[in-house]
Design brief:
Length: 100
């Protein structure tokens, strides 16, 4: 009597499916393990570039802060020249006499 659930091969179909899945996962892991060093060194290079760009941005922000502090104190900066109207970008009301 042969029913729908009888099987006569060397391995049951579920075992073949499980072994095939494990073998496929092993192949994927081997490929990823081989690619891992290239990914790590690539990410390190990109992170180094980001760090350098952030350091440059921090230097520029510090210079802007120093310039704003000089302007707030009324002292001319490197690129500012002492003008009777005050620091650049300052709008004076009409009739204001900066020399008084």
């Amino acid at each position: 009597m042969t029913g729908a659930w009888e099987w006569s091969g060397p391995l049951p179909p579920l075992a073949v499916l499980v072994l095939s899945a494990l073998f496929g996962a092993l192949i994927v892991l081997v490929v990823l393990w081989i690619a891992l060093p290239f990914a790590v060194f690539g990410v390190k290079r990109v992170l180094r570039e980001i760090r350098d760009a952030q350091a440059e941005t921090n230097r520029e922000l510090a210079e802007i802060r120093r310039s704003l502090e000089r302007i707030a104190r009324g002292a001319p900066g490197r690129e500012d020249s002492p003008r009777p109207g005050g620091p650049p970008g300052v709008v004076r009301p009409p009739g204001h006499d900066p020399g008084a």
